[in-house]
Specification:
elongated, about 325 residues, six-stranded parallel beta sheet, alpha/beta
Length: about 325
């Protein structure tokens, strides 16, 4: 049978109210002798306060919810870790749900998390083109990461997708490439913005864009895109890939086609995950600010949940061997 606050009070020779004052550090003062007896009774009896009841009294649970579209994707796995790390330093736990890129499953998880009285929700939606207006009806603050547009009625924090793709394409142009393919994802938001950046860099260099391929954000998606890239005419000498996970599949697919990276085709990906650093060859990447995104999302939910913000963070070019650079970044 669980030990109760009344059991602690009897063992310490005080009232249950005094036990509450000691455990909650107030609101009334307690003598040093009574405090010592309460703490000794707590330890000897193995008493554990009812965290849920306490959280309901205080109006918070010190818990955040996180809904991801694909927890197996290295980018989302690292983003989740950054969120958990940031939450932990603030004394918060994170409940993580994987929607598997399914809108209905995503909505079910959002409702379930809200019922559990979380203090805030971080959402990476399964799609960028859904209406997020109904999320404003939740009794908790929400921050959308990565795939949500700036005009959303809830707070958004993302990398600057258009600018990142522009910088990656510019890097390939500076290598002397004139036929640069693009592999994007299936969605209309992130992939469209990255395709716009790719096209802007080509337009400024007065280069004709190669065919843009669309594929799933997965290893298999990148693998299947390799055949389409290899079949393009004129043959691309470089590829900008919209995610690391696609790029890893693309490397394997190009190898199947007898195409060597970077000798035959240079590759730059967008994400900057640890997995990309261990590819063969290591991926040159437009690294998204994963740690900063997670930290800012957590800080916003805890410190200014009533404010609606829209932030686009800068990416960083990380040069490795897949683009043909001789010197790999440390």
């Amino acid at each position: 049978m669980a030990v109760t606050r009344n059991d602690v009070a009897r063992a310490a020779g005080v009232s249950p109210a005094v036990v509450s004052y000691v455990l909650n550090d107030g609101p009334r003062p307690v003598s040093d002798a009574s405090r010592r007896r309460v703490l000794e009774a707590v330890e000897s009896l193995g008493y554990r306060p009812d965290g849920l009841a306490r959280s309901l009294r205080m109006g918070r649970t010190n818990t955040l919810g996180l809904v991801l579209p694909d927890a197996s994707n290295p980018f989302f796995a690292e983003l989740a870790r950054s969120i958990e790390d940031a939450a932990y330093t603030r004394g918060y736990a994170v409940m993580v749900c994987n929607s598997a890129d399914d809108i209905e499953r995503e909505r079910t998880y959002i409702a379930s998390l809200a019922e559990r009285r979380i203090d805030g929700l971080i959402l990476v939606s399964a799609t960028a083109d859904q209406d997020l207006t109904d999320l404003t009806d939740l009794a908790i603050p929400v921050v959308a990461l990565d795939r949500s547009p700036d005009e959303a009625p809830i707070s958004t924090i993302r990398a600057d997708n258009e600018r990142g793709a522009y910088v990656g394409t510019q890097h390939l142009i500076e290598h002397g490439h004139r036929v640069i393919a693009f592999v994007g994802g299936p969605d209309a938001g992130v992939s469209d913005a990255r395709q716009d950046g790719w096209r802007r860099a080509l337009d400024e260099a007065q280069l004709n864009p190669s065919v843009a391929e669309r594929a799933a954000f997965s290893f298999a998606g990148g693998f299947s895109a390799a055949r389409a890239v290899a079949a393009q005419t004129p043959a691309p000498t470089a590829v900008l890939v919209s995610s690391d996970i696609q790029a890893l599949g693309l490397l394997r697919g190009l190898d199947r086609e007898g195409i060597t990276v970077p000798a035959d085709v240079a590759v730059v990906a967008i994400d900057g995950t640890t997995a990309g650093a261990f590819a063969v060859p290591p991926l040159s990447s437009i690294a998204q600010p994963i740690t900063e995104m997670g930290a800012q999302a957590v800080a916003h939910l805890i410190d200014s949940p009533a404010e609606v913000i829209h932030r686009a963070l800068e990416n960083m070019l990380v040069v490795r061997r897949s683009c043909g650079c001789d010197q790999e970044a440390a």
